[in-house]
Amino acid sequence: MNGLGIVSAFTAESRLLGPSIRRDRSLACLADGTLLVVSGMGAAAAEQGALRLVEAGARALMSWGVAGGLDPRLAAGTVLLPNEIVSAEGRVLATTRDWRERLSGAVASLCTVSAGRLLTAAQPIASPADKAIAFRQAGAAAVDLESFAVAAVAERHRLPFLAVRAIIDTAAEGLPRAVAAAAGTDAPEMRFGGVLAAIVRAPAELPGFIRLVRRYLQASRALKVVARSGALAPPGLGRP
To answer: What integer pLDDT is reported at residue 185 of this predicted model?
Structure first.
């Protein structure tokens, strides 16, 4: 065990980190000793996942996965290493600076990296109009559903924290309603059967779904670069 614990909402996102060995029903371990919890979507699930990692001995926490773009300048596949996480209520928590800078320096020549605020919302922000409002009000570059909850656990336990999020849908792109509806708030898998059924009922959403799949592949490639950088853990964490 190297002391790092990662919370990922979906199994598909967690697989980008590399092969893992399951330790129990909720906890897995990567080849380098990193602990991993696949929590499911939403703040409550992410908080429980982070607490499970702390209980298992994690000495630093990371929120990992994709995010929706709010800043119009961010393209799909951009890796966001936020300097701050802001809650839906406006509470702000900082990420760990030396960790963030170390990881950014390790991957900046391999993929597009950005900083800024990451908003954790209570539910997906689906339309470009709503994204524009969130961008103005929160001053956030992107939005997810889990990172603030993980950051809050790290703050309570005085642990280093970092979020790593790759942009999937850009600020100008709407999230298909079928995808938003099929994403359960605590499920570790996207319900693709429900997505396809919804598209059959509303075929006009098919182009948006196809675009989202392409964007997801871009985001996945970027996250793989970060995972293979060898710089995921904060400086000095592996030392006794």
So the answer is: 45
